[in-house]
Amino acid sequence: MAAFLHSSARVVMMAFMALMLAVVSARPGAMRTLPRSIPVPSEDPFYQPPAGFESKAPGAILRQRNVSTAFLGFIEDPVTAYQLLYRTTAINGSAIATVTTIFVPSFPKTDRFVSFHTAYDSSATICNPSYNYRLGAEQADIISSAEQLILQMYLQLGYITVSPDYEGPEAAFGAGHLAGMGVLDSMRAVSNFKTLGLSSVEPMIVGLGYSGGAIATGWAASLHPTYAPELDIKGWIQGGTPANLTGTLSFSDDTPFSGFMLPAIVGMSMPSAYGAKLTPILNRILTDKGRKILDTARTTCGVEELLTYSDLSVLSTDFQTLGDRMFYEPTIRSVMSKNMLGVNKTETPTAPVFVYHATQDEVIPYSNASLMVDSWCHNGASVKFTSFANGGHATTEMIALPDVIDFVKAAFAGTTASGCTKNTELDNLLNPLALGVDLEPILVNLIQVLAHLGKRDSNVEQNLEVLTDVVTE
Description:
Blueprint: H1 2-24, E1 61-67, E2 70-71, E3 75-76, E4 80-89, E5 95-104, E6 109-117, H2 129-132, H3 142-156, E7 159-164, H4 176-191, E8 204-210, H5 212-227, E9 232-239, H6 245-252, H7 261-268, H8 275-285, H9 288-297, H10 302-308, H11 330-337, E10 353-358, H12 366-378, E11 383-388, H13 393-399, H14 401-413, E12 421-425, H15 440-453, H16 460-472
Parallel strand pairs: 6-7, 6-8, 8-9, 9-10, 10-11, 11-12
Antiparallel strand pairs: 1-4, 2-3, 4-5, 5-7
């Protein structure tokens, strides 16, 4: 399996590079000489907040700059782009600072923006989207690079699109409240960024994310009513949601996807997350092997960890001394219980939510997402819940794109339905023309990339056959 994954990753990267060249080849000025390598976040002064920033309000802009963005670090994305360093909040309520990247299309709708939460799933700051998006960045995160294709769809529709480093300055992956506040404070910062020329002091916003990005989306939706109620959020979209962190980690242990557990363990034990509580426990229970593996996770990105640690069992005594009782340790159990969406009534979204999930998702359990939806509906939220009966984790992100785009448009128009609805989609074939002629070329390229990532999903070959027929007609 490990050999297959390594081979698949190489194919994906080669295909993605070719597809990026195809996507931008028709854009004037899309190619230019690569600048010298830019500094990584840990060495870039822009990421360091100025003295006294702690006294600023959450969402305050601390620094700003124009940036050049690119696919894979060297194929320029010819849009106007900015980055903001802004003040946000750690788990214990203290002030921290992180960065958001703003993409502005040629003819933007100035009364709204989309907040796009990419699944960078990492506990290393070199994987931050704000770094990987930039021209000249040494690419470390394939997932963010692939999802940058999805981001182009919103730009094509005329939406200013924002992508925050919602894990904060320490890449605290998995810490739901921190990610949610990071998203909401990014929205505050962008709303107050006068350079954009937004036509409203309270612009309309739709927030969305898939998989790891759904952690940030789900928690931002949950915290919006109490943490940032002034934001005019029209809707939320989250797919493949890790609604229960314990359930997700247990589900992926000793599977081809067990590498995703490592950045979550490291991220949750960062000082800005739950380090004060978890670090002493981890120091006591980790074996030498476990320490060495987690040290590696502090410097690498999600895909590399996925490839390197396929079929690893974190719940083995080879990794830590508690074995399969690890999540029952009182402190760990207490922390993990705080990272379950839908538990507290006060953390119920007030803006409409579109939730979608594959019933056969092999990475994130469907049952946890379904339970979250039931809880939110019981507490009065308006939720559209779509279950995809075919396909798996990777292909569901692409299969759902027409529904996602429709919900974004409806949310901005104020025409989403109130109350809760559930439906099941049986067809896992995607017609790229469903999004319209302008978006069809981008979607075709995205499907080909994600098809490699989702080879274990059912009927992927059918999607590729359908696409071939559409493209050649």
